[in-house]
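Weekly structure sync - notes
Attendees: PM, LS, DV (DV joined late)
Agenda: review two folding runs queued last week.

Item 1: First target. Sequence and C-alpha coordinates pasted below for the record.
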Amino acid sequence: MKRVASIDVSSNLQSAGQTLWDCIVIGAGPAGSLAARQLAKDGLRTLLVDRKSFPRDKVCGACVNHRALTALAAADLQDVVSSCGGIRLSHFDLRAGGKHVRLNLPGGLAVSRHKLDAVLLDAARDAGAFTLSQVNASVLPRENDAAHREIQLTLANSSSSTKTVVRGKTVLAADGLGHPSLRKLNEFTDSISAKSRIGLGGILRDNARHRSFEHLKPGVIYMATGAQGYVGMVRVENGHLNFAAAVDRSGYRSANAPQTLLSDIIETAGYGPLPIDGLRLTGTRELTRRINRVASDRVFVVGDAAGYVEPFTGEGMAWAFAGGLSVAPVIRQSLSDSVSARLAETRWQQHWDQQIASRQRWCRRLAWLLRRPRGIDVAMKTACAFPRLTSPIIQSMNASFAG
Protein backbone atom coordinates (compact mmCIF):
# COMPACT_ATOMS: atom_id res chain seq x y z
CA MET A 1 0.00 0.00 0.00
CA LYS A 2 1.37 3.39 -0.97
CA ARG A 3 2.41 5.61 1.92
CA VAL A 4 0.60 8.94 2.22
CA ALA A 5 2.95 11.62 3.52
CA SER A 6 1.89 13.62 6.54
CA ILE A 7 1.13 17.30 6.17
CA ASP A 8 4.20 19.39 7.02
CA VAL A 9 2.98 21.28 10.08
CA SER A 10 5.46 24.13 9.65
CA SER A 11 4.30 25.12 6.17
CA ASN A 12 1.01 23.37 5.45
CA LEU A 13 -1.06 23.78 8.62
CA GLN A 14 -3.38 26.08 6.71
CA SER A 15 -4.01 23.45 4.03
CA ALA A 16 -5.67 21.20 6.60
CA GLY A 17 -8.30 23.90 7.05
CA GLN A 18 -9.25 23.83 3.38
CA THR A 19 -10.77 20.34 3.53
CA LEU A 20 -14.02 19.22 5.11
CA TRP A 21 -12.87 16.02 6.78
CA ASP A 22 -15.16 13.07 7.35
CA CYS A 23 -13.48 12.55 10.71
CA ILE A 24 -10.83 14.40 12.68
CA VAL A 25 -9.08 12.11 15.15
CA ILE A 26 -7.35 13.85 18.05
CA GLY A 27 -4.58 11.76 19.59
CA ALA A 28 -2.26 9.32 17.79
CA GLY A 29 -1.93 6.71 20.51
CA PRO A 30 -3.12 3.11 20.01
CA ALA A 31 -6.84 3.96 20.01
CA GLY A 32 -6.58 7.03 17.79
CA SER A 33 -4.15 5.59 15.24
CA LEU A 34 -6.08 2.33 14.91
CA ALA A 35 -9.41 4.15 14.47
CA ALA A 36 -7.87 6.54 11.92
CA ARG A 37 -6.46 3.59 9.98
CA GLN A 38 -9.81 1.82 9.86
CA LEU A 39 -11.63 4.97 8.75
CA ALA A 40 -9.06 5.81 6.07
CA LYS A 41 -9.13 2.22 4.77
CA ASP A 42 -12.84 2.70 4.11
CA GLY A 43 -12.09 5.75 1.99
CA LEU A 44 -13.11 8.39 4.53
CA ARG A 45 -11.19 11.66 4.57
CA THR A 46 -9.41 11.31 7.88
CA LEU A 47 -7.17 13.81 9.65
CA LEU A 48 -5.12 12.52 12.61
CA VAL A 49 -3.51 15.12 14.87
CA ASP A 50 -1.29 14.86 17.95
CA ARG A 51 0.50 17.36 20.17
CA LYS A 52 3.71 15.32 20.15
CA SER A 53 6.17 14.35 17.45
CA PHE A 54 6.87 10.66 16.86
CA PRO A 55 8.52 8.48 17.96
CA ARG A 56 8.09 9.51 21.58
CA ASP A 57 8.11 7.80 24.97
CA LYS A 58 4.89 7.32 26.91
CA VAL A 59 4.07 6.25 30.46
CA CYS A 60 2.75 2.72 29.98
CA GLY A 61 3.19 -0.81 31.24
CA ALA A 62 4.36 -1.74 27.71
CA CYS A 63 2.34 -4.98 27.74
CA VAL A 64 0.15 -5.96 24.81
CA ASN A 65 -1.84 -8.80 26.34
CA HIS A 66 -3.70 -11.64 24.65
CA ARG A 67 -6.91 -9.61 24.44
CA ALA A 68 -5.09 -6.71 22.76
CA LEU A 69 -3.43 -9.05 20.25
CA THR A 70 -6.85 -10.48 19.39
CA ALA A 71 -8.14 -6.99 18.63
CA LEU A 72 -5.12 -6.27 16.41
CA ALA A 73 -5.64 -9.55 14.57
CA ALA A 74 -9.24 -8.51 13.83
CA ALA A 75 -7.77 -5.45 12.08
CA ASP A 76 -5.24 -7.59 10.15
CA LEU A 77 -2.44 -6.07 12.21
CA GLN A 78 -1.44 -9.22 14.09
CA ASP A 79 2.22 -8.85 13.09
CA VAL A 80 2.63 -5.22 14.16
CA VAL A 81 3.90 -5.90 17.69
CA SER A 82 6.30 -8.67 16.69
CA SER A 83 7.67 -6.44 13.92
CA CYS A 84 8.61 -3.96 16.64
CA GLY A 85 10.75 -6.59 18.34
CA GLY A 86 8.14 -7.33 21.00
CA ILE A 87 9.13 -9.94 23.59
CA ARG A 88 6.71 -12.80 24.20
CA LEU A 89 5.25 -12.83 27.72
CA SER A 90 4.80 -16.06 29.67
CA HIS A 91 4.57 -15.17 33.37
CA PHE A 92 3.31 -12.57 35.83
CA ASP A 93 5.56 -12.29 38.92
CA LEU A 94 3.89 -10.55 41.88
CA ARG A 95 5.60 -9.63 45.14
CA ALA A 96 4.38 -7.80 48.23
CA GLY A 97 5.81 -7.67 51.74
CA GLY A 98 8.33 -10.38 50.92
CA LYS A 99 5.66 -12.79 49.66
CA HIS A 100 5.92 -14.05 46.11
CA VAL A 101 3.63 -15.70 43.58
CA ARG A 102 4.23 -16.41 39.89
CA LEU A 103 1.31 -16.90 37.51
CA ASN A 104 1.11 -18.15 33.94
CA LEU A 105 -0.06 -15.74 31.25
CA PRO A 106 -2.08 -16.86 28.20
CA GLY A 107 0.16 -14.93 25.80
CA GLY A 108 1.04 -11.34 25.07
CA LEU A 109 4.06 -9.30 24.03
CA ALA A 110 6.10 -6.56 25.68
CA VAL A 111 7.03 -3.56 23.52
CA SER A 112 7.78 0.09 24.24
CA ARG A 113 5.29 2.77 23.27
CA HIS A 114 8.23 4.59 21.68
CA LYS A 115 8.33 1.86 19.06
CA LEU A 116 4.71 0.67 18.91
CA ASP A 117 2.98 4.03 18.56
CA ALA A 118 5.27 5.10 15.71
CA VAL A 119 4.47 1.89 13.80
CA LEU A 120 0.73 2.32 14.36
CA LEU A 121 0.93 5.91 13.14
CA ASP A 122 2.67 4.68 9.98
CA ALA A 123 -0.13 2.14 9.51
CA ALA A 124 -2.69 4.95 9.63
CA ARG A 125 -0.71 6.96 7.08
CA ASP A 126 -0.33 3.94 4.82
CA ALA A 127 -4.11 3.49 4.88
CA GLY A 128 -4.60 7.06 3.65
CA ALA A 129 -4.94 9.17 6.79
CA PHE A 130 -3.33 12.60 6.80
CA THR A 131 -1.42 13.45 9.95
CA LEU A 132 -0.36 16.57 11.78
CA SER A 133 2.04 16.36 14.70
CA GLN A 134 3.11 18.96 17.26
CA VAL A 135 -0.27 20.69 17.28
CA ASN A 136 -2.70 21.29 20.12
CA ALA A 137 -6.35 20.67 19.30
CA SER A 138 -9.46 22.11 20.91
CA VAL A 139 -12.99 21.21 19.82
CA LEU A 140 -15.11 24.35 19.61
CA PRO A 141 -18.76 24.53 20.73
CA ARG A 142 -21.15 23.87 17.87
CA GLU A 143 -22.99 26.92 16.57
CA ASN A 144 -26.30 27.28 14.73
CA ASP A 145 -26.81 23.55 14.14
CA ALA A 146 -23.90 23.45 11.70
CA ALA A 147 -23.48 20.20 9.81
CA HIS A 148 -19.85 19.96 10.89
CA ARG A 149 -17.67 20.45 13.97
CA GLU A 150 -14.79 22.91 14.20
CA ILE A 151 -11.46 22.22 15.86
CA GLN A 152 -8.97 24.94 16.66
CA LEU A 153 -5.34 23.97 16.05
CA THR A 154 -2.31 25.77 17.44
CA LEU A 155 1.37 24.92 17.17
CA ALA A 156 2.69 23.11 20.23
CA ASN A 157 6.02 24.17 21.72
CA SER A 158 5.92 27.41 19.78
CA SER A 159 5.64 31.07 20.69
CA SER A 160 3.40 31.62 17.68
CA SER A 161 -0.20 32.53 18.51
CA THR A 162 -1.44 31.55 15.05
CA LYS A 163 -4.69 29.60 15.20
CA THR A 164 -6.10 27.46 12.44
CA VAL A 165 -9.65 26.10 12.38
CA VAL A 166 -10.27 22.76 10.69
CA ARG A 167 -13.71 21.32 9.99
CA GLY A 168 -14.90 17.76 10.35
CA LYS A 169 -18.23 16.02 9.95
CA THR A 170 -17.30 14.00 13.03
CA VAL A 171 -14.64 14.19 15.73
CA LEU A 172 -12.98 11.38 17.65
CA ALA A 173 -11.27 12.43 20.89
CA ALA A 174 -8.51 9.93 21.70
CA ASP A 175 -6.19 12.36 23.45
CA GLY A 176 -5.69 10.59 26.76
CA LEU A 177 -6.49 11.21 30.40
CA GLY A 178 -8.79 14.15 30.95
CA HIS A 179 -9.53 14.56 27.20
CA PRO A 180 -7.97 18.07 27.02
CA SER A 181 -9.36 18.66 23.52
CA LEU A 182 -12.92 18.72 24.93
CA ARG A 183 -12.43 21.31 27.68
CA LYS A 184 -14.52 23.92 25.88
CA LEU A 185 -17.52 21.56 25.64
CA ASN A 186 -19.80 21.57 28.67
CA GLU A 187 -21.42 18.27 27.73
CA PHE A 188 -18.30 16.25 28.58
CA THR A 189 -17.20 16.15 32.22
CA ASP A 190 -14.85 13.95 34.24
CA SER A 191 -15.28 12.65 37.76
CA ILE A 192 -11.92 11.83 39.34
CA SER A 193 -11.69 9.38 42.21
CA ALA A 194 -10.68 11.10 45.44
CA LYS A 195 -8.13 8.34 46.03
CA SER A 196 -6.87 8.21 42.47
CA ARG A 197 -3.21 7.48 42.08
CA ILE A 198 -0.91 9.14 39.57
CA GLY A 199 1.20 7.34 37.01
CA LEU A 200 4.99 7.39 36.72
CA GLY A 201 7.00 5.70 34.02
CA GLY A 202 10.27 5.52 32.16
CA ILE A 203 12.68 3.22 30.34
CA LEU A 204 16.11 2.27 31.63
CA ARG A 205 18.19 1.79 28.51
CA ASP A 206 21.63 1.28 30.06
CA ASN A 207 20.80 -1.36 32.67
CA ALA A 208 23.00 -4.06 31.11
CA ARG A 209 25.99 -2.82 33.10
CA HIS A 210 24.17 -3.29 36.43
CA ARG A 211 24.24 -6.78 37.95
CA SER A 212 21.34 -5.71 40.14
CA PHE A 213 18.99 -6.11 37.16
CA GLU A 214 20.13 -9.55 36.01
CA HIS A 215 17.28 -11.36 37.80
CA LEU A 216 14.68 -9.42 35.79
CA LYS A 217 14.37 -11.75 32.81
CA PRO A 218 12.64 -11.21 29.45
CA GLY A 219 9.12 -12.60 29.11
CA VAL A 220 8.02 -11.83 32.67
CA ILE A 221 5.92 -8.97 34.03
CA TYR A 222 7.34 -8.13 37.46
CA MET A 223 5.06 -6.25 39.84
CA ALA A 224 6.04 -4.87 43.23
CA THR A 225 3.08 -3.89 45.40
CA GLY A 226 3.10 -1.87 48.60
CA ALA A 227 1.11 0.56 50.70
CA GLN A 228 2.17 3.56 48.57
CA GLY A 229 1.36 1.96 45.21
CA TYR A 230 2.77 -0.56 42.79
CA VAL A 231 5.57 -0.69 40.24
CA GLY A 232 5.55 -2.85 37.11
CA MET A 233 8.78 -3.82 35.35
CA VAL A 234 9.18 -5.66 32.05
CA ARG A 235 11.86 -6.14 29.41
CA VAL A 236 10.98 -4.62 26.05
CA GLU A 237 12.77 -4.69 22.70
CA ASN A 238 16.57 -4.49 22.80
CA GLY A 239 16.53 -5.66 26.42
CA HIS A 240 15.55 -2.26 27.78
CA LEU A 241 13.72 -2.26 31.11
CA ASN A 242 10.35 -0.49 31.18
CA PHE A 243 9.00 0.88 34.47
CA ALA A 244 5.37 1.87 35.04
CA ALA A 245 3.96 2.76 38.44
CA ALA A 246 0.75 3.94 40.07
CA VAL A 247 1.52 5.75 43.33
CA ASP A 248 -0.40 7.65 45.97
CA ARG A 249 -0.28 11.39 45.53
CA SER A 250 0.65 11.88 49.19
CA GLY A 251 3.62 9.53 48.86
CA TYR A 252 4.74 11.27 45.70
CA ARG A 253 4.64 14.69 47.35
CA SER A 254 6.53 13.56 50.45
CA ALA A 255 9.28 11.63 48.64
CA ASN A 256 12.64 13.30 48.14
CA ALA A 257 12.53 12.10 44.53
CA PRO A 258 10.07 9.91 42.59
CA GLN A 259 12.90 7.42 41.95
CA THR A 260 13.27 7.03 45.71
CA LEU A 261 9.57 6.26 46.11
CA LEU A 262 9.66 3.60 43.38
CA SER A 263 12.86 2.12 44.76
CA ASP A 264 11.30 1.81 48.22
CA ILE A 265 8.22 0.03 46.84
CA ILE A 266 10.38 -2.38 44.82
CA GLU A 267 12.73 -3.23 47.69
CA THR A 268 10.00 -3.56 50.33
CA ALA A 269 8.04 -5.90 48.05
CA GLY A 270 10.98 -8.29 47.91
CA TYR A 271 12.88 -7.60 44.69
CA GLY A 272 15.89 -6.18 46.50
CA PRO A 273 17.51 -2.78 45.97
CA LEU A 274 17.66 -1.60 42.36
CA PRO A 275 19.87 1.35 41.29
CA ILE A 276 17.22 3.42 39.50
CA ASP A 277 18.37 6.86 40.63
CA GLY A 278 19.28 7.60 37.00
CA LEU A 279 15.88 6.56 35.67
CA ARG A 280 14.19 9.48 33.93
CA LEU A 281 10.54 9.43 34.95
CA THR A 282 7.49 11.09 33.42
CA GLY A 283 4.26 11.62 35.33
CA THR A 284 0.58 11.53 34.39
CA ARG A 285 -2.65 13.10 35.54
CA GLU A 286 -4.78 11.29 38.12
CA LEU A 287 -5.44 7.83 36.72
CA THR A 288 -8.81 6.62 37.98
CA ARG A 289 -11.62 8.68 36.45
CA ARG A 290 -14.93 8.36 34.66
CA ILE A 291 -16.48 10.44 31.91
CA ASN A 292 -20.20 11.23 31.95
CA ARG A 293 -20.70 10.22 28.30
CA VAL A 294 -18.64 8.98 25.36
CA ALA A 295 -20.65 10.51 22.51
CA SER A 296 -22.57 13.72 21.89
CA ASP A 297 -23.41 15.84 18.87
CA ARG A 298 -21.04 14.07 16.42
CA VAL A 299 -18.18 13.95 18.92
CA PHE A 300 -17.04 10.48 20.01
CA VAL A 301 -14.58 9.59 22.77
CA VAL A 302 -12.31 6.53 22.97
CA GLY A 303 -9.27 5.18 24.79
CA ASP A 304 -8.02 6.74 28.03
CA ALA A 305 -10.02 9.88 27.21
CA ALA A 306 -13.20 7.86 27.81
CA GLY A 307 -12.31 6.90 31.37
CA TYR A 308 -9.57 4.94 33.05
CA VAL A 309 -8.77 2.73 36.00
CA GLU A 310 -5.41 1.37 37.08
CA PRO A 311 -4.62 -1.65 34.86
CA PHE A 312 -2.47 -4.64 35.75
CA THR A 313 -1.34 -6.86 32.86
CA GLY A 314 -1.91 -4.84 29.70
CA GLU A 315 -5.61 -4.06 30.12
CA GLY A 316 -5.18 -0.39 29.18
CA MET A 317 -3.75 -1.31 25.79
CA ALA A 318 -6.51 -3.86 25.22
CA TRP A 319 -9.22 -1.28 25.97
CA ALA A 320 -7.55 1.14 23.55
CA PHE A 321 -7.29 -1.32 20.66
CA ALA A 322 -10.79 -2.70 21.17
CA GLY A 323 -12.20 0.82 21.32
CA GLY A 324 -10.33 2.07 18.26
CA LEU A 325 -11.45 -0.94 16.25
CA SER A 326 -15.09 -0.74 17.36
CA VAL A 327 -15.67 3.00 17.03
CA ALA A 328 -14.77 3.18 13.32
CA PRO A 329 -17.98 1.51 12.01
CA VAL A 330 -20.04 3.61 14.43
CA ILE A 331 -18.55 6.80 12.99
CA ARG A 332 -19.24 5.56 9.47
CA GLN A 333 -22.89 5.09 10.45
CA SER A 334 -23.08 8.61 11.88
CA LEU A 335 -22.08 10.18 8.55
CA SER A 336 -25.30 9.17 6.78
CA ASP A 337 -27.71 11.77 8.20
CA SER A 338 -28.74 13.46 11.44
CA VAL A 339 -30.96 10.54 12.49
CA SER A 340 -28.14 8.08 11.88
CA ALA A 341 -25.79 10.33 13.85
CA ARG A 342 -28.02 10.23 16.93
CA LEU A 343 -28.44 6.48 16.62
CA ALA A 344 -24.68 6.07 16.27
CA GLU A 345 -24.05 8.09 19.42
CA THR A 346 -26.46 5.88 21.37
CA ARG A 347 -24.88 2.78 19.86
CA TRP A 348 -21.39 3.86 20.89
CA GLN A 349 -22.47 4.67 24.44
CA GLN A 350 -24.08 1.25 24.80
CA HIS A 351 -21.09 -0.52 23.28
CA TRP A 352 -18.65 1.27 25.57
CA ASP A 353 -20.70 0.50 28.67
CA GLN A 354 -21.13 -3.17 27.79
CA GLN A 355 -17.75 -4.04 26.29
CA ILE A 356 -15.21 -1.69 27.87
CA ALA A 357 -16.53 -0.14 31.09
CA SER A 358 -17.81 -3.50 32.32
CA ARG A 359 -14.33 -5.02 31.86
CA GLN A 360 -12.75 -2.20 33.84
CA ARG A 361 -14.63 -3.30 36.95
CA TRP A 362 -12.18 -6.17 37.47
CA CYS A 363 -9.28 -3.74 37.69
CA ARG A 364 -11.26 -1.36 39.87
CA ARG A 365 -11.91 -4.15 42.38
CA LEU A 366 -8.30 -5.28 42.38
CA ALA A 367 -7.09 -1.70 42.77
CA TRP A 368 -9.43 -1.27 45.74
CA LEU A 369 -8.09 -4.45 47.35
CA LEU A 370 -4.43 -3.65 46.78
CA ARG A 371 -4.74 -0.20 48.37
CA ARG A 372 -5.20 -1.83 51.75
CA PRO A 373 -2.23 -3.41 53.58
CA ARG A 374 -4.44 -6.10 55.10
CA GLY A 375 -5.99 -6.75 51.70
CA ILE A 376 -2.55 -7.11 50.14
CA ASP A 377 -1.51 -9.55 52.87
CA VAL A 378 -4.65 -11.69 52.54
CA ALA A 379 -4.50 -11.67 48.74
CA MET A 380 -0.85 -12.73 48.68
CA LYS A 381 -1.35 -15.48 51.25
CA THR A 382 -4.32 -16.81 49.28
CA ALA A 383 -2.46 -16.63 45.96
CA CYS A 384 0.57 -18.39 47.44
CA ALA A 385 -1.50 -21.13 49.05
CA PHE A 386 -3.98 -21.60 46.20
CA PRO A 387 -2.39 -20.27 42.97
CA ARG A 388 -5.07 -21.91 40.85
CA LEU A 389 -7.66 -19.52 42.28
CA THR A 390 -5.95 -16.65 40.45
CA SER A 391 -6.20 -18.28 37.03
CA PRO A 392 -9.85 -17.27 36.38
CA ILE A 393 -8.95 -13.63 37.06
CA ILE A 394 -6.00 -13.69 34.65
CA GLN A 395 -8.07 -15.51 32.03
CA SER A 396 -10.96 -13.07 32.38
CA MET A 397 -8.67 -10.07 31.91
CA ASN A 398 -7.26 -11.64 28.75
CA ALA A 399 -10.51 -12.94 27.24
CA SER A 400 -11.43 -11.57 23.83
CA PHE A 401 -14.04 -8.84 23.52
CA ALA A 402 -17.43 -9.76 22.13
CA GLY A 403 -18.20 -8.53 18.66
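Item 2: Second target, run right after the first with the same settings.
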Amino acid sequence: MTQNEKKPLNTPASLRCSLQNSEEVLIVTWQKIKAVSPENMVTFSKNHGVVVQPAYKDKINITQLELKNSTITFWNTTLEDEGCYKCLFNTFGSGKISGTTCLSLSVQPTVFLHYKFFEDHLNITCSANARPAPVISWKVSGSGIENSTEVLFHPNGTTSVTSVLQIKDPKRQVGKEVVCQVLHLGNVTSVMQTVHKGFWFSVPLLLSIVSLVILLVLISILLYWKRRRNQDREP
Protein backbone atom coordinates (compact mmCIF):
# COMPACT_ATOMS: atom_id res chain seq x y z
CA MET A 1 0.00 0.00 0.00
CA THR A 2 1.39 3.38 -1.02
CA GLN A 3 0.30 7.02 -0.96
CA ASN A 4 1.39 9.88 -3.20
CA GLU A 5 2.82 12.97 -1.53
CA LYS A 6 2.72 16.69 -2.34
CA LYS A 7 5.36 18.76 -0.57
CA PRO A 8 6.89 22.24 -0.83
CA LEU A 9 10.16 22.46 -2.72
CA ASN A 10 13.36 22.66 -0.62
CA THR A 11 11.78 20.98 2.41
CA PRO A 12 11.98 17.42 3.81
CA ALA A 13 9.61 14.85 2.30
CA SER A 14 8.82 11.22 3.10
CA LEU A 15 7.40 8.39 0.98
CA ARG A 16 5.83 5.32 2.59
CA CYS A 17 5.20 1.79 1.43
CA SER A 18 3.53 -1.09 3.30
CA LEU A 19 3.06 -4.80 2.58
CA GLN A 20 -0.30 -6.08 3.81
CA ASN A 21 0.08 -9.87 3.43
CA SER A 22 1.79 -12.39 5.70
CA GLU A 23 4.79 -13.16 3.49
CA GLU A 24 8.23 -13.07 5.10
CA VAL A 25 10.22 -10.12 3.73
CA LEU A 26 13.96 -10.57 3.29
CA ILE A 27 14.94 -7.18 1.89
CA VAL A 28 13.29 -3.87 0.94
CA THR A 29 14.59 -1.90 -2.04
CA TRP A 30 13.63 1.62 -3.11
CA GLN A 31 14.07 2.61 -6.75
CA LYS A 32 13.55 5.80 -8.72
CA ILE A 33 11.52 5.19 -11.85
CA LYS A 34 13.34 6.51 -14.92
CA ALA A 35 12.68 6.39 -18.66
CA VAL A 36 15.15 3.59 -19.43
CA SER A 37 15.09 1.48 -16.26
CA PRO A 38 14.54 1.94 -12.50
CA GLU A 39 17.56 3.14 -10.51
CA ASN A 40 18.37 1.59 -7.13
CA MET A 41 18.52 4.14 -4.34
CA VAL A 42 18.59 2.40 -0.97
CA THR A 43 17.98 -1.05 0.55
CA PHE A 44 17.25 -2.40 4.01
CA SER A 45 17.65 -5.90 5.41
CA LYS A 46 18.24 -7.40 8.83
CA ASN A 47 21.61 -8.78 7.78
CA HIS A 48 23.07 -5.64 6.18
CA GLY A 49 20.99 -2.81 7.61
CA VAL A 50 20.56 0.31 5.46
CA VAL A 51 22.66 0.56 2.31
CA VAL A 52 22.41 3.86 0.41
CA GLN A 53 23.75 4.03 -3.14
CA PRO A 54 26.58 6.58 -3.62
CA ALA A 55 24.46 8.89 -5.81
CA TYR A 56 21.96 9.30 -2.96
CA LYS A 57 24.25 9.54 0.07
CA ASP A 58 23.52 12.58 2.28
CA LYS A 59 20.33 13.06 0.27
CA ILE A 60 17.96 10.32 1.46
CA ASN A 61 17.72 7.56 4.04
CA ILE A 62 15.31 4.89 5.20
CA THR A 63 13.73 6.35 8.32
CA GLN A 64 11.37 3.48 9.16
CA LEU A 65 13.53 0.42 9.76
CA GLU A 66 10.93 -2.29 9.21
CA LEU A 67 10.65 -4.95 6.53
CA LYS A 68 6.91 -4.70 5.92
CA ASN A 69 6.58 -0.95 6.49
CA SER A 70 9.23 1.18 4.86
CA THR A 71 9.70 4.95 4.70
CA ILE A 72 12.34 6.93 2.85
CA THR A 73 12.97 10.58 3.66
CA PHE A 74 14.50 13.26 1.45
CA TRP A 75 16.37 15.67 3.70
CA ASN A 76 15.91 18.66 1.38
CA THR A 77 13.92 18.20 -1.80
CA THR A 78 15.13 19.54 -5.15
CA LEU A 79 13.58 19.55 -8.61
CA GLU A 80 15.35 16.28 -9.45
CA ASP A 81 13.43 14.53 -6.65
CA GLU A 82 10.04 15.07 -8.23
CA GLY A 83 8.75 11.89 -9.85
CA CYS A 84 7.64 8.35 -9.05
CA TYR A 85 9.37 5.72 -6.93
CA LYS A 86 9.04 1.96 -6.56
CA CYS A 87 9.34 -0.02 -3.35
CA LEU A 88 10.27 -3.70 -3.81
CA PHE A 89 9.61 -6.26 -1.10
CA ASN A 90 11.73 -9.34 -1.77
CA THR A 91 9.74 -12.08 -0.02
CA PHE A 92 10.61 -15.66 0.87
CA GLY A 93 7.61 -17.32 -0.74
CA SER A 94 6.27 -14.98 -3.44
CA GLY A 95 9.37 -13.33 -4.85
CA LYS A 96 9.26 -9.58 -5.45
CA ILE A 97 6.15 -7.58 -4.59
CA SER A 98 6.23 -3.92 -5.62
CA GLY A 99 4.32 -0.70 -5.11
CA THR A 100 4.63 2.76 -6.66
CA THR A 101 4.38 6.16 -4.99
CA CYS A 102 4.92 9.61 -6.49
CA LEU A 103 6.30 12.87 -5.11
CA SER A 104 5.06 16.25 -6.38
CA LEU A 105 6.87 19.44 -5.38
CA SER A 106 5.32 22.88 -5.22
CA VAL A 107 6.14 26.51 -4.48
CA GLN A 108 3.44 28.72 -2.98
CA PRO A 109 2.52 31.77 -5.08
CA THR A 110 4.01 35.20 -4.55
CA VAL A 111 1.56 37.83 -5.80
CA PHE A 112 2.10 41.49 -6.71
CA LEU A 113 -0.60 43.97 -7.75
CA HIS A 114 0.01 47.54 -8.91
CA TYR A 115 -1.34 50.13 -11.34
CA LYS A 116 -0.01 53.01 -13.44
CA PHE A 117 -1.72 55.93 -15.17
CA PHE A 118 -0.86 56.91 -18.74
CA GLU A 119 -2.07 59.74 -20.96
CA ASP A 120 -5.13 57.94 -22.29
CA HIS A 121 -5.42 54.72 -20.27
CA LEU A 122 -4.76 52.93 -17.00
CA ASN A 123 -2.70 49.73 -16.68
CA ILE A 124 -3.38 47.38 -13.75
CA THR A 125 -0.81 44.59 -13.46
CA CYS A 126 -1.05 41.41 -11.41
CA SER A 127 1.89 38.99 -11.37
CA ALA A 128 2.20 35.64 -9.60
CA ASN A 129 5.16 33.28 -9.33
CA ALA A 130 4.61 29.67 -8.23
CA ARG A 131 5.06 25.97 -9.00
CA PRO A 132 3.06 24.59 -10.74
CA ALA A 133 2.00 27.55 -12.85
CA PRO A 134 -0.71 29.72 -11.25
CA VAL A 135 -3.85 30.95 -13.02
CA ILE A 136 -4.85 34.63 -12.75
CA SER A 137 -8.38 35.99 -12.99
CA TRP A 138 -9.87 39.42 -12.23
CA LYS A 139 -12.81 41.01 -10.47
CA VAL A 140 -13.15 44.49 -11.95
CA SER A 141 -16.10 46.62 -13.05
CA GLY A 142 -16.38 48.89 -16.05
CA SER A 143 -16.15 48.69 -19.82
CA GLY A 144 -13.42 49.23 -22.39
CA ILE A 145 -11.08 46.80 -20.63
CA GLU A 146 -8.49 44.70 -22.47
CA ASN A 147 -6.51 41.86 -20.89
CA SER A 148 -3.11 40.46 -21.90
CA THR A 149 -1.15 37.64 -20.25
CA GLU A 150 2.55 36.74 -20.32
CA VAL A 151 4.08 33.48 -19.04
CA LEU A 152 7.74 33.09 -18.09
CA PHE A 153 9.43 29.82 -17.04
CA HIS A 154 12.35 29.99 -14.60
CA PRO A 155 15.30 27.58 -14.18
CA ASN A 156 14.29 26.90 -10.56
CA GLY A 157 11.08 25.24 -11.74
CA THR A 158 8.71 28.09 -10.94
CA THR A 159 6.53 29.90 -13.46
CA SER A 160 5.69 33.61 -13.50
CA VAL A 161 2.33 34.65 -14.91
CA THR A 162 1.70 38.35 -15.51
CA SER A 163 -1.75 39.65 -16.41
CA VAL A 164 -2.24 43.29 -17.48
CA LEU A 165 -5.60 45.05 -17.65
CA GLN A 166 -5.67 48.10 -19.92
CA ILE A 167 -8.57 50.41 -19.06
CA LYS A 168 -9.46 52.96 -21.73
CA ASP A 169 -11.19 55.45 -19.41
CA PRO A 170 -9.01 55.64 -16.28
CA LYS A 171 -11.01 58.41 -14.57
CA ARG A 172 -14.03 56.13 -14.19
CA GLN A 173 -11.89 53.59 -12.33
CA VAL A 174 -10.82 56.02 -9.60
CA GLY A 175 -12.20 55.01 -6.20
CA LYS A 176 -13.14 51.51 -7.37
CA GLU A 177 -11.70 48.28 -6.01
CA VAL A 178 -9.79 45.86 -8.22
CA VAL A 179 -9.33 42.22 -7.18
CA CYS A 180 -6.68 39.89 -8.61
CA GLN A 181 -7.42 36.21 -7.94
CA VAL A 182 -4.65 33.60 -8.17
CA LEU A 183 -5.63 29.93 -8.42
CA HIS A 184 -2.93 27.46 -7.33
CA LEU A 185 -3.40 23.80 -6.42
CA GLY A 186 -7.10 24.34 -5.77
CA ASN A 187 -6.57 27.34 -3.47
CA VAL A 188 -7.46 30.92 -4.39
CA THR A 189 -5.41 33.90 -3.20
CA SER A 190 -7.12 37.28 -3.58
CA VAL A 191 -5.23 40.58 -3.62
CA MET A 192 -7.29 43.79 -3.55
CA GLN A 193 -6.38 47.38 -4.29
CA THR A 194 -8.35 50.61 -4.67
CA VAL A 195 -7.41 52.88 -7.55
CA HIS A 196 -6.67 56.37 -6.27
CA LYS A 197 -6.68 59.59 -8.25
CA GLY A 198 -3.46 60.04 -10.14
CA PHE A 199 -1.87 62.58 -12.43
CA TRP A 200 -2.95 62.13 -16.03
CA PHE A 201 0.07 62.90 -18.13
CA SER A 202 -0.81 64.94 -21.23
CA VAL A 203 1.69 65.74 -23.96
CA PRO A 204 -0.24 68.78 -25.30
CA LEU A 205 -0.57 70.16 -21.77
CA LEU A 206 3.13 69.66 -21.12
CA LEU A 207 4.05 71.41 -24.38
CA SER A 208 1.77 74.31 -23.48
CA ILE A 209 3.40 74.67 -20.06
CA VAL A 210 6.91 74.54 -21.52
CA SER A 211 5.99 77.11 -24.19
CA LEU A 212 4.53 79.43 -21.56
CA VAL A 213 7.66 79.17 -19.41
CA ILE A 214 9.90 79.92 -22.41
CA LEU A 215 7.73 82.90 -23.35
CA LEU A 216 7.90 84.29 -19.81
CA VAL A 217 11.68 83.89 -19.79
CA LEU A 218 11.99 85.69 -23.13
CA ILE A 219 9.75 88.54 -21.93
CA SER A 220 11.83 88.86 -18.76
CA ILE A 221 15.04 89.00 -20.79
CA LEU A 222 13.54 91.57 -23.16
CA LEU A 223 12.35 93.80 -20.31
CA TYR A 224 15.71 93.54 -18.58
CA TRP A 225 17.55 94.42 -21.79
CA LYS A 226 15.22 97.38 -22.45
CA ARG A 227 15.69 98.67 -18.91
CA ARG A 228 19.47 98.48 -19.17
CA ARG A 229 19.35 100.30 -22.50
CA ASN A 230 17.29 103.14 -21.04
CA GLN A 231 19.71 103.44 -18.12
CA ASP A 232 22.66 103.72 -20.50
CA ARG A 233 20.98 106.61 -22.36
CA GLU A 234 20.50 108.71 -19.22
CA PRO A 235 23.18 111.50 -18.81
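Discussion on item 2: The mean pLDDT is 87.
Action: LS to circulate a short write-up before next sync.
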